[in-house]
Design brief:
single chain, 286 residues, mainly alpha, 0% strand
């Protein structure tokens, strides 16, 4: 365990936003969805506090007088938004690995990456980060070079880097699976709220017809029914607006993360694969 005086410049335990907020941060850009849900619940409460204080406001009526579905919409929207915010900060931390001050492979033209020089790079990695397993780029390099040090075959390094790159892309895709389900679930909740509102309005309309009397009384009752019908669509409006904003944010962030993984592949090609040299005994085996 590093003392505060000897902490490396890139310290995941100290710089990861989830570790700072509540501990138990997800690996790479993954978000701890359980712990983030607690923060989302608190954000939802903070959202409703001013609405409760001013119940006559139009916005308050939209979220307080439409049944239970707006509460679920607000909670899922807060959960997804907070998770995307955390994910964006974790991605920013991962990108810091590209900075020149954190270069782990010597840039000198005469440096050759082989089984004998692997320790030079590995030592640089451990001097730069507290745990390479939490950084996409350094984890990828460490896995490839560990194989090179153990087996001594430089020909396998490029294949390992390629396989690890595919694994990182798959891991990135699965990290968005819960958020994608939120984008699907929020509009569905809006439609459910609308159906409930329509059901109530239709039931009230049936009651008006059964108690039909004077035309003026019927008109007054129908005004209440039509007002209920208009309010029934408010939940769909809330859900569609929330889902649209979350989907746009998600698409933008996912594009940035895909570009980051491409940059990791390019970095490994330029700074690891291009430094490799086939040894004489490997040529003989071929």
């Amino acid at each position: 365990m590093n003392s505060p005086e000897t902490l490396p410049p890139l310290c995941w335990n100290r710089m990861d936003i989830e570790q700072r907020l509540y501990g138990g941060g997800g690996r790479f850009t993954r978000v701890n969805m359980f712990r983030s849900s607690i923060i989302a619940l608190l954000l939802s409460v903070l959202f409703y506090l001013p609405l409760v204080m001013f119940p006559k406001h139009t916005l308050s009526q939209m979220f307080l007088e439409q049944g239970p579905t707006p509460y679920a919409i607000v909670f899922l929207s807060a959960w997804a938004s907070f998770a995307l915010l955390i994910k964006s900060r974790k991605l920013a931390l991962q990108r810091r690995c590209f900075q020149e001050e954190y270069r782990v492979v010597p840039s000198s033209p005469g440096f050759i990456l082989a089984a004998k020089t692997v320790d030079v790079v590995m030592n640089n990695i451990h001097r730069t980060v507290d745990d390479p397993r939490h950084f996409v780029l350094f984890n990828r390099i460490q896995i490839a070079l560990s194989n090179l040090r153990n087996l001594g075959r430089v020909g396998d390094v490029e294949d390992i880097l390629r396989a690890q790159g595919s694994h990182d892309e798959s891991s990135m895709e699965t990290s968005y699976s819960v958020l994608n389900s939120f984008v699907w679930a929020i509009p569905v909740l809006g439609f459910i709220g609308t159906v409930l509102g329509l059901s109530a309005a239709i039931g009230e309309f049936g009651g008006v017809l059964q108690g039909a009397g004077e035309m003026d009384a019927i008109k007054a009752s129908l005004q209440n029914v039509t007002a209920g019908l208009s309010e029934a669509f408010v939940t769909t409006l809330e859900a569609l607006v929330a889902a649209l904003m979350i989907q746009l944010w998600l698409a933008f962030l996912k594009k940035n993360e895909e570009e980051f993984l491409d940059e990791c592949t390019e970095y490994c090609t330029r700074n690891v694969v291009n430094k490799l040299r086939i040894m004489v005994y490997e040529r003989d085996e071929e």
